[in-house]
Amino acid sequence: QVQLVESGGGLVQPGGSLRLSCTASGSIFTIYAMGWYRQAPGKQRELVAGITSGGSTNYADFVKGRFTISRDNAKNTVYLQMNSLKPEDTAVYYCYADIQVVTHREYRYWGQGTQVTVSS
Fold first, then answer.
1. Please, are residues 118 and 19 in contact by the beta-carbon 8 Å criterion?
2. Model confidence over 9-44: pLDDT tens digits?
């Protein structure tokens, strides 16, 4: 069994910053890509950013220059530093991880979601 636990969401004013964290634990053999999606009310879930095990990153156009994704492989943790937040960034943020478990099968696991609200 594998679990992804997120933290770091909350309420922030426009222009402010938040840092999300997501840690994987359980019967993990290898973690490949990790990243973040978000879903705003009434909208589809959309990719925010991803990072490979080697550190290569990709970002949605709407966060480029404002958000930074990173990971600590020793801690099985992925981070999302969010700066210059806008009201339209308000959403539930979900982390994901592509994990090869001890049986050597690979699955995509998801966190429980953390609410980010940008409002004055």
1. no
2. 999 999 999 999 999 999 999 999 999 999 999 999
